[in-house]
Design goal:
two-stranded antiparallel ribbon; alpha+beta; globular; about 30% helix; 2 strands; Galactosyltransferase C-terminal domain-containing protein; about 10% strand
């Protein structure tokens, strides 16, 4: 995950983040292997509009930017506020505020303007 710089901070809600991470993986020379459904039983979930986030009319433009320069945006520039954390036996539970307002300026810069953000 570090080599591809994790997921982009430019996608909020549901949509295109999976395409973006695929581009990052392939750009770093990794392969994506999709096994036959008979052994993997993977199926895509129906995409329904995410009403919890504003519409981002610029997502395709953001994805095109990723194809040109895939890894500057991600873990290396993620800003967040730690709310709480606790260690469990097999995992750590971490609650954060992803501070979306700090990432919106990047989206506006990429898109020129966003009517809904």
């Amino acid at each position: 995950m570090k080599r591809i710089n994790g997921f982009s901070n430019s996608y909020w809600g549901w949509g295109l983040e999976d395409d973006d991470i695929s581009i990052r993986i392939l750009a770093k020379g990794y392969n994506i292997i999709k096994y036959p459904e008979t052994i993997s039983r993977y199926t895509t979930i129906t995409h329904v509009r995410d009403r919890g986030n504003p519409v981002n009319n610029c997502m395709q433009k953001i994805l095109q930017r990723t194809k040109r320069i895939p890894s500057w945006d991600g873990l290396s520039n993620l800003k967040y506020k730690l709310i709480a954390s606790r260690k469990e036996h097999l995992f750590s539970h971490v609650l954060i505020d992803p501070l979306p307002h700090l990432h919106v300026w990047k989206i506006k810069k990429i898109c020129g303007r966003l009517a809904t953000l």
